[in-house]
Amino acid sequence: KEETEEAAANVARFAHCKASGCLATLAIGSTENQGAIANAGGIAPLVGLLTSESAVTAQYAAAALQSLARDHTENQMNLAKAGAIGPLANLLGSDSAATQEHAGGALLFLASHEASRDAVVKRLVAVLDARSAGAQMKAAEALAVLAARSDENRRAITAASAIVPLVKLLG
């Protein structure tokens, strides 16, 4: 019985991984598919998969959320409401460069929406104090991109007390 349960769990993990990857691809460049995935209830399970034990599943979930958030304001708001910001920020410390890229990209899209910008910036600033040099680098990179985009972003970054941790990263 225990082996059967483990086999079923492995199949489920594999299905999560493949479904996340497929949804990520379907959402690329298609506002219609982005909306259809969200309307079908895809956001909450994808956010949940960001903390999967499977690194590949987490990577594909981050990719799917990045694709869902790209240029889609409603999805950006719904991703923030579903609690995606914290787990995405945590994935900046992943050993996988692809996972870091997808998580960082998703966070940048979420930060483009004014309602979630401050929450994203605060999480990125918190990551600057992390022990993982890779996560610190990705957080600093994301903050630099945001800072280059607008005065509002620069004010949000400054208000989140980013200057001191950024200076500390200089050594």
Give a concise summary.
Helices cover 78% and strands 0% of the residues. With 171 residues, it is mostly helical.
Considering the chains and any ligands shown, give keywords for the structure.
11 helices; 78% helix; 171 residues; mainly alpha
What is the helix content? over 70%
Termini distance? 55 Å
User: Shape, please?
Assistant: globular
Low-confidence stretches: none
Question: Structural class from helices and strands?
Answer: mainly alpha
Taking Cα atoms only, what radius of gyration do you get, to the nearest Å? 17 Å
Number of helices: 11
Average pLDDT, rounded to a whole number, is: 93
Number of strands: 0
* Strand content bin: under 5%
- Main sheet attributes: strand count, strand direction, barrel closure: none
Helix-strand pattern: HHHHHHHHHHH
